[in-house]
Specification:
Elements: E1 4-7, E2 14-18, H1 37-40, E3 45-49, H2 61-77, E4 81-85, E5 97-100, E6 105-108, H3 122-125, H4 128-136, H5 145-158, H6 171-180, H7 184-207, E7 213-216, E8 223-227, E9 230-234, E10 245-250, E11 253-259
Parallel strand pairs: 1-5, 2-3, 3-4, 6-7, 7-9
Antiparallel strand pairs: 2-10, 5-6, 8-9, 10-11
């Protein structure tokens, strides 16, 4: 079964793109699902571009999967078609990439931009050899899009999530160690922020050169870039120290790209 889906929204349908809600995660700053109704107002289709919820085996899995079902139910109640795209925190979602409006618009989580998925992550840094052996088994991942996408899913399933440093009682020290150790972790994060747009453009030139708009997440940093006639948008994250953005489109045109804020919730971004 293909991990790529093609979607043709009805004419005039408002399609809203978001990503990285991370429902269930202890650092998630999205409102309770019941308070996400404003996100659905006037929308015909909601596209979550990966990491909707925590569904990998971890301490937050049960809570994440329950919240995902709540969001699905909320969308059905409001007559909004929900399109889910797999991210590295919800690899059980079948679709890894969606082409809209005959491929003029591409939505993907963004972890497939890196064969390592997240080369700055503890999962990769602690399991480099196993990760490299898995990458070697996908020899055509530089030329075959489906192979590249399936590699990203396999990488997410290879190692269990590594949580914050256990055994460190001081929360400030634990947070510091989580973010800044080993040193290549913060260096990798900053480098990924600085280069993600160019990397996405190179990925697009290789695999979908006709795309006019590409929407991705994964980086937890919003961004709006143009490369010639191609526009690349990152939707940030509903996560601590990040900001969620939404992309609204109608008939393959970007209507708005804006920060999401709902004053009726406890969301602070």
């Amino acid at each position: 079964m293909s991990c790529i889906i093609d979607i043709e929204p009805p004419a005039g349908c408002l399609v809203r793109f978001v990503s990285d809600l991370h429902l269930g995660h202890e650092r998630c700053e999205a409102p309770a699902v019941a308070e996400l109704e404003p996100l659905l107002q006037g929308v015909g289709m909601l596209v979550v571009v990966g990491d909707l919820a925590e569904t990998r085996p971890c301490a937050w899995q049960a809570r994440g999967m329950e919240a995902r079902e709540e969001l699905r139910h909320l969308c059905r109640e409001h007559g909004v078609q929900l399109v889910e795209i797999s991210g590295n925190h919800d690899p059980d979602t079948p679709a890894l990439l969606a082409r809209f409006w005959s491929g003029r618009v591409i939505a993907m989580h963004g972890h497939a931009l890196y064969k390592e998925v997240a080369p700055w992550s503890w999962e990769y840094l602690r399991n480099k050899q196993a990760c490299r052996e898995l990458i070697a088994r996908y020899a055509d991942a530089d030329e075959n899009l489906e192979s590249r996408l399936e590699l990203s899913r396999a990488m997410c399933q290879l190692t269990p999530p590594i949580l914050r440093r256990e055994g460190i009682r001081n929360p400030l020290l634990r947070g510091f160690m989580h973010c800044f150790w080993p040193p290549q972790r913060p260096m990798g994060i900053v480098w990924s922020w600085l280069t993600c747009a160019r990397r996405c453009e190179q990925f697009a030139r290789r695999f979908f050169p006709a795309a006019e708009v590409i929407i991705f997440g994964h980086m937890h940093r919003f961004g709006n870039w143009s490369f010639g006639k191609r526009r690349i948008l990152n939707t940030g994250a509903w996560f601590k120290h990040a900001t969620p953005y939404v992309v609204d489109m109608r008939d393959s045109r970007v209507i708005s790209y804006k920060k999401y804020y709902n004053s009726e919730t406890n969301h602070k971004n």
